[in-house]
């Protein structure tokens, strides 16, 4: 059974990928989406969203990360996929599920689900441009307004060359409103020859088991459930292995303390002081769904703007580290600088992300125009 950690723009960045993969049980991560328009992005953009590229493409816990691209132009996506592939990620993933208006307005993300022919062309062009040894996968929703073309879309991706599909069991219109239609993922699984990973609304071990049963998929992708309960992947594995005694919360609050300490350590190392409190409160906000202690801390500290004061309350003086400006005095927070020595440059200002908020616009700067290659898939479909 593979358990993948979902891409979540504005929330599940390299810091949280580091922490959640240390918790255990995750087989692979997908980066937040990297938005592609009409240029080949400079390498620094890929490193900024996916600093793991500087460390063999894995999180510090050794879990591989796949880079995700979002766009609608087959040639441009292919050129950017080739550049990403040259940095040796553990595969290239293509986003056909983002419901954000700013992305859909430019024909990217879930908007493509109305155009299976274009989806096919994108996959074909990316597949033939990146080296044969690079895995190309895709993540999709069930459709835009309804799921009538879900199977057609999945087949377009698989026949175009996607080696794995992750299916979020909802349409764009359904947004993040429960339920997720796991049985519809099953219909896709039966219609394509490539592995299908089921995604959406898996918050507990029981959800994971029901999702597996209804979709027929063994492999699952965990998003918000894993952020709220970092022990979820371990608990799912234990349940599947027949260790029924473990409850849905795999790690209790005490077991989470070392992970909170790592989180804070990365935050104060890499994020400027004025954004540190926001980053801590963002994760606390989500943790309170499963942990009453997080709820108490969130209520007590929601108005606090000094991250170290929150860290002191949560972790004590040792866990909170040195006072004053701490190591964040040297934090680099400007877009466009390459990470060095494993340092992490966030993609954007940390902000409060409620549990049901969707992805926003990454708004990366562009530089080099995409090749206008003769015979490219845009012209020969
Ligand atoms: C804040 C947020 C950001 C997201 N960003 C991305 C993204 O960058 N790429 C992507 O393919 N899906 C993105 N998603 C969708 C998730 O990967 C996942 O499909 C969705 O949250 C359903 O899974 P869950 O119920 O386990 O959270 C995002 C979802 C949220 C809530």
Mean pLDDT: 85
Q: What is the element string, with H for helices and E for strands?
A: EHEEHEHEHHEHEHEHEHHHHHHEH
Bound heterogens, unique:
flavin mononucleotide
Into which percentage range does the β-strand content fall?
5-15%
Number of helical stretches of at least 4 residues: 15
Under the CATH scheme, the architecture of the largest domain is Alpha-Beta Barrel
Q: Between the first and last Cα atoms, what is the distance in angstroms?
A: 37 Å
CATH class of the largest domain: Alpha Beta
CATH fold-level topology of the largest domain? TIM Barrel
CATH superfamily of the largest domain: Aldolase class I
Tally of strands: 10
In spatial order, strands of the major sheet run 1-2-4-5-6-7-8-9
Write down the domain tally.
Answer: 2
Largest sheet: 8 strands, parallel, barrel
Task: Report low-confidence residues grouped into runs of 5 or more.
Answer: 324-367, 374-381
Helix content: 40-55%
* Structural classification: alpha/beta
Our Rg estimate from Cα atoms comes to 20 Å
Tell me which oligomeric state these chains represent.
Answer: single chain
Shape: globular
Structural notes for this entry:
The protein has 381 residues and is an alpha/beta fold. The protein has two domains: 3-240, Aldolase class I (TIM Barrel, Alpha-Beta Barrel); 253-330, no CATH class. Helices cover 41% and strands 11% of the residues. The chain contains 15 helices and ten strands. The strands form two sheets. An eight-stranded parallel beta barrel has the order 1-2-4-5-6-7-8-9, surrounded by seven helices. The protein has a two-stranded antiparallel sheet with strand order 3-10. Helix 5 packs parallel to helix 6. The protein is globular and about 55 Å long. Residues 324-367 and 374-381 have low confidence and may be disordered.
């Amino acid at each position: 059974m593979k358990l993948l950690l979902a891409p979540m723009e504005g929330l599940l960045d390299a810091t949280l990928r580091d922490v959640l993969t240390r918790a255990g049980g995750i087989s692979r991560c997908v980066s937040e989406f990297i938005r592609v328009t009409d240029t080949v992005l400079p390498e620094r953009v890929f490193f900024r969203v996916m600093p793991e590229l500087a460390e063999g493409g894995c999180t510090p816990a050794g879990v591989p990360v796949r880079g995700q691209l979002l766009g609608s132009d087959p040639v441009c996506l292919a050129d950017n996929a080739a550049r990403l592939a040259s940095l040796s990620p553990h595969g290239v993933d293509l986003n056909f599920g983002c419901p954000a208006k700013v992305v859909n307005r430019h024909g990217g993300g879930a908007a493509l689900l109305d155009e299976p022919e274009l989806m096919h062309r994108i996959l074909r062009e990316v597949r033939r441009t990146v080296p044969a040894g690079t895995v190309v996968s895709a993540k999709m929703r069930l459709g835009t307004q309804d799921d009538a073309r879900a199977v057609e879309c999945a087949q377009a991706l698989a026949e175009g060359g996607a080696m794995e599909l992750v299916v979020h069991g909802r349409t764009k219109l359904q947004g993040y409103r429960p339920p997720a239609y796991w049985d519809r993922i099953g219909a896709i699984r039966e219609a394509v020859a490539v592995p299908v990973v089921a995604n959406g609304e898996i918050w507990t071990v029981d959800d994971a088991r029901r999702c597996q049963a209804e979709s027929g998929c063994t492999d699952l992708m965990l998003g918000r459930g894993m952020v709220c309960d970092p022990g979820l992947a371990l608990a799912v594995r234990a349940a599947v292995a027949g260790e029924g005694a473990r409850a849905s919360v795999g790690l209790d609050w005490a077991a989470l303390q070392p992970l909170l300490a790592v989180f804070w350590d990365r935050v104060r190392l890499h994020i400027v002081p004025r954004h540190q409190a926001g980053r801590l409160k963002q994760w606390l906000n989500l943790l309170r769904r499963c942990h009453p202690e997080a709820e108490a801390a969130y209520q007590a500290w929601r108005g606090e703007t000094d991250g170290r004061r929150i860290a002191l309350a949560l972790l004590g003086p040792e866990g909170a580290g040195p006072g004053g400006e701490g190591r964040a005095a040297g934090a680099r927070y400007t877009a466009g600088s390459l990470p060095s020595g494993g340092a992490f440059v966030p993609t954007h200002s940390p902000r409060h992300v409620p549990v049901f908020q969707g992805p926003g616009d990454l708004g990366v700067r562009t530089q080099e125009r995409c090749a206008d290659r003769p015979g490219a898939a845009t012209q020969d479909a």
